[in-house]
Amino acid sequence: xxxxxxxxxxxxxxxxxxxxxxxxxxxxxxxxxxxxxxxxxxxxxxxxxxxxxxxxxxxxxxxxxxxxxxxxxxxxxxxxxxxxxxxxxxxxxxxxxxxxxxx
Amino acid sequence: xxxxxxxxxxxxxxxxxxxxxxxxxxxxxxxxxxxxxxxxxxxxxxxxxxxxxxxxxxxxxxxxxxxxxxxxxxxxxxxxxxxxxxxxxxxxxxxxxxxxxxxxxxxxxxxxxxxxxxxxxxxxxxxxxxxxxxxxxxxxxxxxxxxxxxxxxxxxxxxxxxxxxxxxxxxxxxxxxxxxxxxxxxxxxxxxxxxxxxxxxxxxxxxxxxxxxxxxxxxxxxxxxxxxxxxxxxxxxxxxxxxxxxxxxxxxxxxxxxxxxxxxxxxxxxxxxxxxxxxxxxxxxxxxxxxxxxxx
Lengths: 103, 296
Prior knowledge:
CATH topology of chain A: Alpha-Beta Plaits
Radius of gyration of chain A: 17 Å
Strand order of the largest sheet of chain B: 2-1-3-4-8-7-9-10
CATH topology of chain B: Rossmann fold
Shape of chain B: globular
Strand content of chain A: 5-15%
CATH architecture of chain A: 2-Layer Sandwich
Order of helices and strands of chain B: HEHEHEHHEEEHEHEHHEEHH
Number of strands of chain B: 10
Number of helices of chain A: 2
Structural class of chain A: mainly beta
Largest sheet of chain B: 8 strands, mixed
Largest interface: A-B, 38 and 40 residues
Helix content of chain B: 25-40%
Distance between the termini of chain B: 26 Å
Largest sheet of chain A: 2 strands, antiparallel
CATH architecture of chain B: 3-Layer(aba) Sandwich
Oligomer: heterodimer
Radius of gyration of chain B: 18 Å
CATH class of chain B: Alpha Beta
Order of helices and strands of chain A: EHEEHE
C-alpha cells in the first residue's frame, strides 16, 4: 500500500568512496532519503476504509506526513510511518486501529 | 482565508526526518511548508528540526535550506532576504524555523534586529518549552514548575522557579506588520495565519506551541490532546497582532481546570494542589493583561 505522491527511499545512493568524492556540507541535494524509518515502529496504523469518512484529521495531524489522500481510500506509507499513534488517537470515527508488528 | 484540507497538496516538503515519534515541531514545519510551497528558502539554527532533518548523508527537506549558527537565525535571514531582493526573486518566501531556546534566549538579539529593520521574512518559532535537542535543559520559555535536567525536582527544589517570557508581547512591541501565536492542535488556525503572513511584506513572526512527548513525558499519541488542553485551560492562547491591534482568535468561555493538562505529564508530576493554584493565579494575571490590551 505505497502511496504514489510521497517521496521514497533513494536506492541508488552510494556513500562517497574517497575523500575526493565528498561534498562540502551536510548534503549535495535537497530531499535525499537514504534510510527508512519503519524499524522504529512497534504498532502499525491500519485504516478501515468502511468506517472512514475522509475528514482528513489524521492526514493533517500526522507528524511524518505518511498518510496519502490521492486515492479513494486513505493510504499509509509504511516505509516512513513511525507508529506514534496520533492518527488512531485523534480519529473521530475510530476507523484506525494500531496493530502490533510481528517479526 | 479559509483553509480546506481537501484542496491542500498531498506533496510533502519535509519527509523521512528522524524526529521522535509524535513530534509537535515536525507537524508545525510540515503544515507551514504545505501553505508556503516549494519556492521557500528555509534557515535553521541548531535545533530539533535541523538536527533531525540533516543527518549525513540524508536531507529530509525538499526545499533549499541552510543550517546556521545558534544565535544567527535573524541575521542569516536578513542576508537571505537581501540576496533574494538583489536577484529580483519576487515569488520566494524566506522562512526561519527555530526552537524556543534559539529564539527567546540565544537568538533574541538577532531576532530583535530583524524586527527593527523590518526585513522581508517569516520567522516561525516552535515552542517545545525547553532545549529538547540537547536533552531537556530549561529555556526562558519553560513554564513555572516544570521539571527539566537543569531545573530539577527533589529536596527543596520544585522544578522551574521563573515565569516564562512572553515572546508574543516582545515581538509585538517591535511594531512588526504581523505577529501571532498558534498551536499544533489547531492546524486550521495555524495554516490561516501562515497564509495571511505569506501575503504581508516585512518581518512576520509566528510563535507556535509544539508539544514534545520526549521532554514533557507523555505517550506519543497524545501530542494533539495536550496541545488542545493547554489552550482550553488557558495556559496558551491563540492571538494575533496586526496594525497595532491585538486580536484573540479563540476565547474559551470557561477555562478547564489546569489539572487535566498538568497531571498526565512527567515534568509536572511533582506538583501539588497548592501549586495548581499558583499556576491558575499566574494564568489569570496573564489573561487580565491580555484583555486590557484587546480593549484599548
